[in-house]
Amino acid sequence: MKRASLILLLGLSASSFLAAQEFTGRVSDPTGAVLARVAVTAHNLDTNLDTPTVTTASGDYTIPYLIPGNYTVAATAKGFEQELRAGLVLQVGQTATVNFTLKVGRASETVTVQADAPLDLGKADIGEVVENQRVTELPLNGRDPVCFQS
């Protein structure tokens, strides 16, 4: 009797991990057009593990073989705002459908300016080195700056 109970208990616990718990859904934009190549990530809050996937050409995704627990699911695409669904509880054998409608995001650009030499705020002059060849080729009459030819 004990042996049968133990086998039943082991069978039930193993089946909970072998059952197909998964998230599935479709990602679209505000007009209803499907979005391909969107990164969708399921984050297990209990184990702190991420399971990523990418949507297909038809905008569909599936994240299979998840363990039961508490999850957040996020969808991220370039040019769109990230959408996050929190408070999702995945039960044994459950296929949870989570659809996303991503809003158009703002373009963001980061510009990094790197200077080779620090700016000296104590001086207001500017300078330039003039090569000897440029000096000898200056258009001066007889190399005398006060003598002008008419």
Could you walk me through the main structural features you see in this protein, from its secondary elements to its overall organization?
With 150 residues, the protein is an alpha/beta fold. It has a domain at 19-101: Carboxypeptidase-like, regulatory domain (Immunoglobulin-like, Sandwich). It is built from two helices and eight strands; from the N terminus they run αββββββββα. Strands 1, 4, 7 and 8 form a four-stranded mixed β-sheet that branches. A four-stranded antiparallel β-sheet has the order 3-2-5-6, with no helix packed on it. It is rod-shaped and about 100 Å long.
CATH topology of the domain at 19-101: Immunoglobulin-like
Tally of strands = 8
The structure class reads alpha/beta
Q: Helicity range of the residues?
A: 10-25%
Mean pLDDT: 81
What is the 3D shape? rod-shaped
CATH architecture annotation name of the domain at 19-101: Sandwich
Which stretches of 5+ consecutive residues score pLDDT under 50?
6-10, 12-17
For the record, what CATH class of the domain at 19-101 applies?
A: Mainly Beta
The SSE string, one letter per element, is: HEEEEEEEEH
Largest sheet features: 4 strands, mixed
Identify the quaternary structure here.
single chain
Round the Cα radius of gyration to an integer and report it.
34 Å
Distance between the termini: 126 Å
Number of helices: 2
* SS strand fraction: 25-35%
Instruction: Supply the CATH superfamily name of the domain at 19-101.
Output: Carboxypeptidase-like, regulatory domain
